Amino acid sequence: MNKRKKLYLFMAIATILMIVAFAGSIIIWTELNTWIPFAVICPVFIILFVCTIVIYMNHVKFVCPKCNQIFKPSANTIIWAIHTPTRRRLRCPYCNTKSWCKEDF
Asked: Could you give the C-alpha distances from 38 to 15, 52, 65, 84, in angstroms and in order?
């Protein structure tokens, strides 16, 4: 299995675990009127989310379609950029063009 498939598989599993755990804790909170599972799951949810973002950022760079330069944007830019599964709308630091940059592993 190549790097891209491993990364996407990890991110998919982590996302599913986060959604199931978060939804389950909310259901327990509303049905049993106890907030303890929610209070336990929230930090785990946040830690897993941050770990997923950090692992993604450490493995991915982006290629500008205009100048073909490879660059690595900041975490804030990666998190808030409009994106598809393989591209993000980013501003290239070399040619200063905002375009759909492809992921490069």
From this structure: 17, 21, 44, 31
Q: What share of the chain is helix, strand, coil (3-state, %, to 5)?
A: 55, 15, 25
Sign of CA dihedral 87, 89, 90, 92: positive
For residue 78 the two structure tokens come to 């990666």
State the Cα–Cα distance between residues 72 and 50, nearest whole angstrom: 18
Could you state, in order of their start, the residue ranges of all structural domains in the chain? 1-59, 60-105
Asked if residue 58 lies in contact with residue 64, where contact means CB atoms within 8 angstroms, the answer is no
pTM for the full predicted model: 0.69
Q: How far apart are CA 23 and CA 61, in angstroms?
A: 32
* E strand residue ranges, the chain: 61-63, 70-71, 87-91, 98-104
Question: Tens of pLDDT along 55-73?
Answer: 888 888 999 999 999 999 9
Residue 68 contacts by C-beta under 8 Å, 6 or more apart in sequence? none
